[in-house]
């Protein structure tokens, strides 16, 4: 692999400046890194008011003079491109990324679920792509205002998508550390992806189909039971594919989630706002891969079908035929 | 069994004058039977405007001079009491029914799902209770206005709850026939109950959790697949309990449902109106009985958990914690 990029003092682009992109970019810029944000809706407000981060594990701050841009052509080539687009916007990346790339540019995707790494590798080259898994509890509460609800700051887990770890993984981790973003090295990134799905599948799923924040899932016995059943199906799928997920890890999800309080997973915010939801990467692809490996995933299949139908309806303006339809 | 009641020219009480009760009572009264309606919200409007029934398989009509009452004491003892309360109101029946009963009064319950017959038998005596299963597609579109969307009129299936058929079953069927209500005798009523659940579990269930009318369930591939999976679980539960439900019956549900058009199952109307939903009789009790018989019902379990949680939230005013909760 070609790992000759400058990741010690890199020029960084943040592509997708929602909750995750905004948080990572702001923390890196606040630590003195050279960060350039590609922004859409928040551009003018952030130019005017800056970017504020509230967090519990380290000082909160507001960043003024944010380097933000409306197009990637204005940013130009970078050493590190952090992709925090929704996976539903992946097709847009094919247009947005090229101006940011030079030889050796590293693309770090922080996207949820399965299939994103493969998408980027196919289009921009296998060697460029690194994976990062964000396990925090971050919301963008208003344009340019980001809050991290995790009392301990949460973690990002960085790794080579399909290989053992490399020196550039350590370099990116060092960057994160400087920005007070707690990080881990994923010795097996695919396993880490499945571990994250143990959380995303139930909590993002029930946030849409049961309209429940994470605390509600934990506090409603039948939802807590259902969440646990979904976790066990993800665990079984992962195990059938050769990724180890221990029972202890599954059981630890409740203790991890409790301190997040009334957290709204990203899928809930997307659904409520009428935006696309990351249906395929979080539920569809795990269901297909697990089922192909011979695992029965009926609860996941049920939640997937419901989300797919609910989201399609929402995007279409949520029409339910009216009862009094002039039948007679 | 004591079957000495007068069911040839009976004094009839309708308890619960919603869609089903209103339809049966109106059709019986229109055919010249002596029908007394216990009404709550619709009482004044029906007294003033009468009760109108629109149907496709027989002439529509409006009944004026409806005998309707605010209390069962005003009605007094009857030969036949038709119970069309929601099963969620069963506790109220303990108070409402006694003034309607004399020796030999027959109670015919038209309620959905499992557990209703047992409830009535425990409180009012085993021999009084008969079961009826309504398979039509009826909505109460406004106070005193009832529509039957089934082009063929639909059917009611009448039987002894836990025994082979008896002469009084034939008598009640004769009454229904006179009222142009197409009827069948259930040789095995428990089996008929489970057959009805093959429809109610998916279509009532998805009407709430997927916010989908019956045509939407049929026309959305993932919902149609999920509905079919739910039917197969109900079939497996029934079979484990000794009730035969053929594959042909399961597959016939689509053909039965298609002509109903954009039908809203009762659970959808109840949920949307913020009323209780028949959760336990339609999903909870079948799940418990099937599971106790050793059948795995993961899709039914998922739908049950979601409905229970959604309905509880709706009844509590649907509070979802607000995102901006002054966390910092």
Quick overview:
Two copies of one chain form a homodimer. The first copy, chain A, has 13 helices and twelve strands. Chain A has helices at residues 19-30, 43-49, 72-75, 90-96, 116-124, 167-178, 189-209, 214-219, 221-240, 247-257, 266-272, 279-292, 298-315; strands at 11-15, 34-38, 51-54, 61-63, 68-69, 80-83, 106-109, 129-135, 138-142, 145-148, 155-159, 183-185.
What does this structure look like?
Two copies of one chain form a homodimer. The N and C termini of chain A lie far apart (71 Å). Chain A has helices at residues 19-30, 43-49, 72-75, 90-96, 116-124, 167-178, 189-209, 214-219, 221-240, 247-257, 266-272, 279-292, 298-315, and strands at residues 11-15, 34-38, 51-54, 61-63, 68-69, 80-83, 106-109, 129-135, 138-142, 145-148, 155-159, 183-185. Chain A has two domains: 11-187, Rossmann fold (3-Layer(aba) Sandwich); 191-324, N-(1-d-carboxylethyl)-l-norvaline Dehydrogenase, domain 2 (Orthogonal Bundle). Chain A is built from 13 helices and twelve strands. With 328 residues, the first copy, chain A, is α/β, with parallel strands linked by helices. The radius of gyration of chain A is 20 Å and the shape is globular. At the A-B interface, helix 9 and helix 13 of A face helix 9 and helix 13 of B.
Jot down its keywords.
alpha/beta, four-stranded mixed sheet, globular, 328 residues, homodimer, 12 strands, N-(1-d-carboxylethyl)-l-norvaline Dehydrogenase, domain 2, 13 helices, 2 domains, Rossmann fold
